Amino acid sequence: MQYDxxxxxxxxxxxxxxxxxxxxxxxxxxxxxxxxxxxxxSLLFKARHD
Length: 50
Known about the structure:
Structural class: mainly alpha
Shape: rod-shaped
Helix content: over 70%
Number of strands: 0
Number of helices: 2
Largest sheet: none
Strand content: under 5%
Order of helices and strands: HH
Mean pLDDT: 76
């Protein structure tokens, strides 16, 4: 019984880490996409420095 429980928790931990890695990479992609867009970037820059 204990073995089954540990197996399930290990699978859950693996799923969580995989999901976190996926989220982190997608966030990085979004940030880089934002940086490569000139109009939006300049708008953000202006808004910050007003």
